[in-house]
Amino acid sequence: MQKRILTILCLLLIACCVLAQQTPQHTADAIDRKVDALLAKMTLDEKIGQLNQYTSDRLATGPLTENSSKFQDIKDGKLGSMLNVKGAKETRMVQELAMQSRLKIPLLFGLDVIHGYRVTFPVPLAEAASWDMQAIQTSARVAGKEAAAAGLHWTFAPMVDITRDPRWGRVMEGAGEDPYLASLIAGARVKGFQGNGLGSLDAIMACAKHFAAYGAAIGGRDYNTADISDRTLWETYLPPFKAALDAGAATFMNGFNELNGIPATGNSYLQKDILKGKWNYKGFVVSDWGSIGEMVQHGYARNSKQAAELAITAGSDMDMESHAYINNMAQLVKENKVPIALIDDAVKRILQKKFEMGLFDDPYRFSNEEREKKELNSPENRAAAREVAKKSIVLLKNDKQLLPLSKNLKTIAVIGPLAKSNIDMMGFWSVKWDDDHLVSLYEGLENKVGKNTRLLYAQGCDVTDTSKSNFAQAVATAMQADVVILAIGEHYDMTGEAKSRANIHLPGVQEDLVKAIKATGKPVVVLTMSGRPMIFNWTADNADAILQTWWLGSEAGNAIADVLFGDYNPAGKLPISFPRSEGQIPVYYNYKSTGRPSANDMGINYRSGYNDIQNSPRYAFGYGLSYTQFALTDLKLDRTTLTANDKLNVSCTLKNTGNYAGEEVVQLYLRDEFASVTRPVKELKGFEKIYLKAGESKTINFVIDKETLSFYDQKMNWATEPGTFQLMIGNSSDHILLKSKFELVK
Ligand code: BGC
Question: What is the mean predicted confidence (pLDDT) over 459-488?
């Protein structure tokens, strides 16, 4: 008996140890005490070291060598974090250097794990088109698990910058133009990366970036000035940051941009008053790459020393790659320009995260080669990538129900510069692997079609070609087929950081290729592959079917084939407007009315609009078709007047009236008709993505409450005002099917 009890106790003890290894149990108080105790032992130089982050030389110059002076700095305790180091082996090796420092404070390893680590997922803008928070969270979860198994502690994601400008290259890295949708996505991605919370062996720290208004770059030119009103900042640009914080984002990154005259990195209003003040954020803020030093080029700091002073004073805790803190901070403290309390606060914030991650329990706990081998590129992770990829595809056009294609077609011509490309499927911000397997469209089709279907191929032209010399061959190929699949768009490095473009039309002669193929009279399915909204008006008017397939990652070809042949019914909705012309930019759905709104969408008769083009985009926010049809009916409001303390219950019925099972995203928009400040003509306030079999119906419920109806009033208070509201429900911001009104009374 005694022996059994002893065995049980032993087993319990082992279980406790294993559990402790998985999730170090540190209460907040215990961590605070440990941080304080450690801080008390630190010299000024060691404190400043914690605020310093270097990149590894790996990306630039090949494998790390012990000779790097950076490595001596690590041993000397002059570094708190390193970015661009990856892999269990490599991270362990660098951490071993930190363990040679006097206080053995572990390093944090960070990397831009933006849309997958080993397995590449769709670029974030594509994922946003899924309007599926579970899928988006899963994508970040898989990325987090893989990265954590590869020795990483921290991703510089999610980028939660709203943008209304598709010329801006980083549009691909965000969730589009709408603060409501983008806020939900910000929360989902943070939760995905951070899993069960810091300390879990498969969780990495998220980083909400770039705080703030980086996406408002004038002219869509990367790194450019943001000059926006406080109202626009609070209404449009800040909500996703607040959502990321509420979801527990461990870290924030500031931006390269200036905001209304003050660089974000040296901006106290943003970092101190809002983030660490009003929002009571307890994590730390890392600068963007070199952004502290760049305040000199902005004309805001005289030199790197003053830049360091301005940045730390404004609330930037860690210096990424400017070397401004490590070179100047000690002197600034000695000269009483920077109070030691400020340094202590920044150091504490960083140490706190290191404790929470369990790195003081075991600095190598993430650097486990066996776990790495098991986790990376697993069949489950690839399956997850294929699922998310399918959900990211948006059906823009489907004349005469050309899609889905029959699996019994005899001959399919696969044409276009991106038809056989696999590298372009991965998108700008992916981690490159020598032995990566990215499934091209052509391979995906090969995997899908049966023995009786012949696939023909012709490139036609390259993405940026100006020559049409290969068109004839492409046309001849098309002539032999029952249907043509035409894959056009951008190379993976045409949209991303520093990839702004003034011309966002389909590059090169690609639209001419569409014309040439269309002239064959064969049915043409166009696949537009890009990281940004592109302009392709002729194609939009003339192609028989169009799928916006973005850059979908490792499983791109398989996912596209699933959709083309109807194994998955597309349900994506655009998270950003697709313009008709660059001259319309910025074009977005939640604009304000003017005193002369343009009823017929043209600026004639002294109305507000262009005389040569409609105001509306080519494809609106929220737009996307399905292989089936849906009917929305039976709008019911349980009241038409309410006070701010009431809840308004709204319901309607969605019926799948077509022949295929499928999903629809039912979208609820409101317009506050009259207020002390003008309100947008439409604001997304809720949506539901619903799966219905053919013939099936379902009641959908929305609840409207005080929070839904609040806005920043004239004094910038978050408040409600009595008045009437238009309620609109539809399947796109420009396709409203149900309308009603209600009144908010005192
Ligand atoms: C980007 C950041 C990124 C950092 C580190 C910068 O150029 O703006 O978003 O996290 O580099 O790679």
Answer: 98
